[in-house]
Design a protein that fits this description.
Blueprint: E1 2-4, E2 12-14, E3 23-27, E4 32-35, H1 37-42, E5 47-50, H2 55-73, H3 79-87, H4 95-101, H5 157-170, E6 176-177, E7 189-190, E8 203-207, H6 211-217, H7 254-257, E9 263-269, E10 274-281, E11 299-301, H8 303-309, E12 315-317, H9 331-334, E13 349-350, H10 353-363, E14 372-383, E15 388-400, H11 410-439, H12 445-468, H13 476-500, H14 504-508, E16 510-514, E17 517-521, H15 523-538
Antiparallel strand pairs: 1-2, 3-4, 3-5, 6-7, 8-14, 9-10, 11-12, 11-13, 14-15, 16-17
Helix pairs in contact: 2-5, 11-12, 11-13, 11-15, 12-13, 13-15
């Protein structure tokens, strides 16, 4: 913290985010450091990536930096101006002058315009609350799973700045304290208005080799036909400071959306640290049909909402399942909207606008077809009426940009098909586990789930390696066949293991119900069914062999 110079109305403590280190980064050698806003941009070529206290904090900070870059560069306006930035090693040189011009709005402790806060924010009782309200790595009711035991009592100014950014993006919903001047207050409370904006998303962004590449790859130009921009688009620090009440306006563009003030905040501090916070609701933002404004998530049509509102189409963000690896959902990242459309119907799914932009870069030849990116997926899973964060999703998928090519769809279709191959093969493995359990008189749900986890775990690394190298081949169909053989052999070995572990009782077997009556089910029959299902799923030559006549239908009802 430094002392602010100026007249009597502005003197006092200061923490200038343009010059004070507060953003955690990882350099090219794997060392961690803290940088100021100026340093982040001047050193972007040397920095590998941002690192946060949580993955969601990294996503929120990246969006903040993107808003700053969009505004400082006033663009890019089109793909040609973007290409000029990509070719210029010092493309962010002008951001220093921009920070000079707006330096006052980046002071975390400013008495009138504190960074992303509302000066004078208070409750009717002048309450100041624990920092647990903004520090998301302190689980509610689970203090033993954090280093901040039992609570977050003090934060450095750098830590507090990061959590302020995170709170606007990912704060939980639930009943919150009412602020003086907010007409939404009822009985001293404001009732649930939803999570922070990014909390509604299945966050997706593109990572390059350095932070400079990452920032540029996610810097979508104003001429993108899949997004809407307004001439007056600007970030939060170039708007009037927020009061206690909320606004129901619509975002004007990416600069506005990336810094959307979903909360009202005011930090309390002493000479050395932040000691408490006042936190309330800010500007609500409904996720429905925001696909032409928000590029950092995939979208899905919602038949339930369409029926309820008698409107079509209605798109909602596709949220991440923390238990599902990114490679299994590759279709949501690379499938073109035309490939999810039935006839004249609107597309069932939309891939993230960020990936639509990268698709344009490779289609128009600005990026080479073999250029490798990492699609990062980050999201929060909320529980108990969105009042707590239950889990976080954080994964990545390295892939060549040819998968996004808008005219040459062969590579993307084979990548999606390869993931489907894995899914079908693992389903066959789960069926085997179920059959072996039924052969000894047990319920098969637990065994099936464990077998599926085993199968997907065994195929994950091979798929990622196969995908990263897909652009190196001239024949993606042949590479798909190579992959199918890999899956056949891998899942086949896993099946061998399950059968060996099934025990004597499974080999002896028992009578079970089948579709056409009953069948004597034992490990031997379960094995034959498994091989047939696996071969059929992968189009393996073994699927053309003589059928097993021990039963006409190997599907055994659960």
């Amino acid at each position: 913290m430094t002392e602010r110079a100026g007249d009597s109305t502005t003197q006092g403590p200061s923490f200038d985010l343009t010059d004070q280190p507060w953003i955690e980064v990882l350099d090219g050698e794997g060392s961690q450091a803290q940088l100021s806003l100026r340093q982040v941009f001047t050193q972007a070529r040397k920095v590998r990536r941002i690192v946060g206290d949580l993955p969601t904090q990294e996503f929120a900070l990246l969006r903040l930096l993107l808003a700053l870059a969009h505004d400082a560069l006033d663009g890019p306006q089109d793909i040609d101006s973007w290409a000029e930035l990509w070719a210029d090693p010092d493309c962010f040189a002008g951001i220093g002058h921009y920070l000079d011009a707006h330096q006052e709005r980046f002071d975390l402790l400013h008495p009138h315009t504190p960074f992303l806060q509302s000066a004078g924010l208070r409750t009717a009782k002048d309450e100041v609350f624990s920092l647990n309200r903004i520090v998301a790595d302190v689980p509610n009711g689970e203090p033993f799973f954090t280093a901040r035991m039992p609570a977050a009592e003090r934060l450095t100014f750098a830590e507090a700045a990061r959590w302020v950014v995170h709170a606007h993006a990912y704060d939980t919903s639930g009943i919150k304290s009412g602020m003086v001047g907010d007409d939404r207050v009822k009985g001293g409370k404001v009732y649930p208005l939803g999570t922070g904006w990014a909390g509604a998303l299945g966050g997706v962004f593109v990572e390059g080799e350095t932070l400079r590449e990452t920032l540029l790859l996610n810097l979508v130009p104003a001429d993108s036909d899949h997004l809407e921009f307004a001439a007056e688009d600007r970030p939060a620090w170039r708007r009037e400071p927020c009061g206690a009440d909320g606004s129901a306006r619509t975002p004007t563009g990416l600069r506005d959306l990336y810094t959307w003030q979903t909360r009202r905040l005011r930090l309390h501090y002493d000479d050395d640290a932040v000691t408490g916070v006042v936190l309330g609701y800010g500007d609500p933002l409904a996720a429905r049909n925001m696909h032409r404004r928000e590029p950092m998530t995939a979208w899905r049509r919602s038949p339930a909402q369409e029926k309820k509102l008698r409107q079509s189409p209605i798109y909602l963000p596709r949220e991440h399942d923390p238990a599902r690896s990114a490679w299994r959902g590759i279709a949501s990242l690379v499938a073109d909207r035309s490939e999810t459309t039935q006839g004249a119907e609107a597309a069932a799914y939309l891939r993230p606008g960020i990936l639509e932009w990268v698709a344009r870069l490779v289609t128009e030849g600005v990026l080479p077809r073999d250029f490798l990116i990492r699609a990062r997926v980050i999201g929060a899973a909320y529980g108990t009426q969105q009042s707590v964060i239950d889990d976080l999703a954080d994964d990545h998928l390295a892939m060549p940009v040819v998968l996004l090519h808008q005219q040459d769809r062969m590579y993307a279709r084979q990548a999606i098909g390869a993931a489907e191959d894995a899914d079908l093969a693992v389903r066959a493995l789960g069926d085997l586990a179920t059959d072996l359990a039924r052969a000894v008189g047990s319920q098969g749900d637990g065994a099936r789930s464990a077998a599926r986890d085993l199968g997907f775990g065994a195929l994950e690394d091979p798929y990622r390696v196969w995908l990263a190298g897909l652009a190196d081949t001239d024949d993606p169909f042949e590479q798909r066949r190579v992959w199918q053989n890999t899956v056949f052999e891998t899942v086949g070995r896993l099946g061998d293991g399950l059968i060996k572990q099934s025990g004597q009782a499974a080999w002896q077997g028992r009578t079970v119900s089948a579709k056409n009556g009953t069948v004597w089910l034992n490990a031997g029959l379960a094995d034959r069914w498994f091989r047939r299902r696996l071969a059929k799923a992968l189009g393996h030559p073994a699927s053309t062999s003589e059928p097993d006549t021990s039963t006409t239908d190997p599907k055994v009802p659960a």
